[in-house]
Amino acid sequence: MKQHRSWMFVPADSEKKLGKAMDLGADVIIVDLEDSVAPQNKAMGRQMARDWLERTHAQAEAPEAPQRWIRINALDTQWWAEDLRAVMPGAPAGIVLPKALGPDSISQVAGELYQLEQAGSAQKGTTRILPLVTETPQAALGIPQYASAQLPRLGGLTWGAEDLSAAIGASRKRDADGNWTDAFRMVRSQMLLAAHALKIPAIDTLWDNFSDLEGLENAARNARADGFAGMLAIHPKQVEVINRAFTPSEEEVEDARRIVAAFASQPGVGTLSLDGKMLDQPHLQLARRILGMDS
After folding, report:
1. What is the pTM assigned to this prediction?
2. What's the pLDDT at 201?
3. 175 annotated ligand binder
C-alpha cells in the first residue's frame, strides 16, 4: 500500500526546487501553482509544472518514487481551469484543490478532469483530488457533507488554518501550550472523522515554523496518534521528521504481529487475553492497520 506520510509543497516557478523535488524523500510532491506563485508568474508556473511532470515521468514509475500532485488555484479565480488544461497531459497522480467550499467544488473539478480525459490528456479516472476543506467558515461548517457525498475521485481530505484564521479574525490558532484553540480543533476533528467515514487518508495541516523540528515532531506524532495518515510539509527538513513520526516503531509492529497471531490462533473468539491484557476486536483492527493489512 502506497504511503501518504509526507506531502511536500514545491513552488511551480522555482527550477532549482523542482530539480530537487523527487529526491527529497517525501511520499508525495505537491507542485504549487497557488500561493507560492505570484499572479504575474502563473503562466510560467504552469509551463514549468508541465515540463517537470514530463521530465520526471519515467522516474515516477519506480515503486518507491513519490507521487506527483499539483495544487491548482482556487475555483473563484480565473486560473484554475487553465491550470488543469496545462498540467493534465503530464499525468499527475492528483490535484490539490484549495478553498474547496464543499462536495460541489469536488464535482466541478471532477467534471473538468473528465472532459480532459475524454480529450486524451490523461488516463481516464485515475487522477484523484485532495481538497483543503476548512479555509472559509462556510466550508468548515459543511465538512460533514463530504461523508455522504458520492465523490469517487477523492484521494483524501486535508485542512489549513491560515486562511480560516484570517477569515474569522483570529489572532491566534494555538494556545500557550501549543494546542489548537476551539475553532481549529473542531474543524480538524470533523475533517478527520469525514475522511475515515469515506475510508480515505486524513492529512494533517502543516507546521509553519520550519526551524522548530522538535515542535514538528511532537505535532506529527500527535497527529498519527489521533488517526491521521500524514502531514503537509513546507520545507525539506520537515520530510524526514514527518516520515519518522508516521512510521510505526519496531515495538509497535511486533506488538501488532503478536495480537494478529493471537486472534488467528483462536478463530471465532471476540476477546482474548495477551500479556495480562484483555483484547477485543478494536485492538485487532488497530493491529491490522499498523501492519498495513487494512486500508
Report:
1. 0.88
2. 96
3. no
Say whether 163 counts as a known binding-site residue. Answer: yes
In the chain, the domains with their CATH numbers are 6-247 (3.20.20.60), 251-291 (no CATH)
Residue with cell 491560515: 162
58's grid cell: 519515467
**Which tens digit of pLDDT belongs to each residue from 198-219?**
999 999 999 999 999 999 999 9
Is 135 one of the annotated binding-site residues?
A: yes
